[in-house]
TrEMBL record:
It comes from Dyella mobilis. This is Uncharacterized protein.
Amino acid sequence: MKRRAPGAWITLNASYYCAPVGHPLKLVDDASLLLEGARGITQSLADLLSQDVDINPDDLAKALWAASVLTEMGQSSAEVAYSRICKMRNRIRNNDDAK
């Protein structure tokens, strides 16, 4: 996995950024979906590996990489949501102090 570019949500072959207009709660929903997908992949792999079947190592590596990417995306989405929630709280506090 490549290091993330500054401010990037995720960096694969290119860097991707969250839309600045996305509501934090939508980002939390996205994080939940992405992390649930990663959990599903890892649970399926765990179930498969506990059986006595031949597994293609290349396919296993790709599935683990996909789970890793989904996990990183989910974490990044949660981080951006948290940052936006903190900014919203600060704006509300500043507005209340100004009154």
